[in-house]
């Protein structure tokens, strides 16, 4: 089912590699997020397709992300 939430990550946080069972939309509200070597910052958008593997992601300075899953 569809769902959305805000995720707050502390500086230095790492989100381990994981699979996506639905489409994941992310908008960086504030801070930074390193997704596979691509540094996303405030206002940037990232989409992961359903059934895709997501590499480990990390934040250097911390971040707030709007995450939405779509079935």
- The helix content, as a percent range, equals under 10%
Enumerate how many helices there are, as a single number. 0
Beta content: over 45%
| Weakly predicted, low-confidence segments | none
Class computed from helices, strands and strand pairing: mainly beta
N-to-C order of helices and strands: EEEEEEEEE
The shape, in one word, is globular
3D architecture notes:
This protein is mainly beta. Helices cover 0% and strands 62% of the residues. It has no helices and nine strands. Strands 1, 2, 4, 5, 6, 8 and 9 form a seven-stranded antiparallel β-sheet that branches. A two-stranded antiparallel sheet has the order 3-7. A hairpin with a 2-residue loop joins strand 4 and strand 5. The chain is globular, with a radius of gyration of 11 Å. The model has no long low-confidence stretch (mean pLDDT 95).
SSE topology sketch:
Layout: E1 3-9, E2 14-15, E3 18-19, E4 23-35, E5 38-41, E6 45-48, E7 53-54, E8 57-58, E9 63-70
Antiparallel strand pairs: 1-9, 2-8, 3-7, 4-5, 4-6, 4-8, 4-9
What's the short version?
It is built from no helices and nine strands.
Name a few traits of the molecule.
9 strands; mainly beta; two-stranded antiparallel ribbon; 71 residues
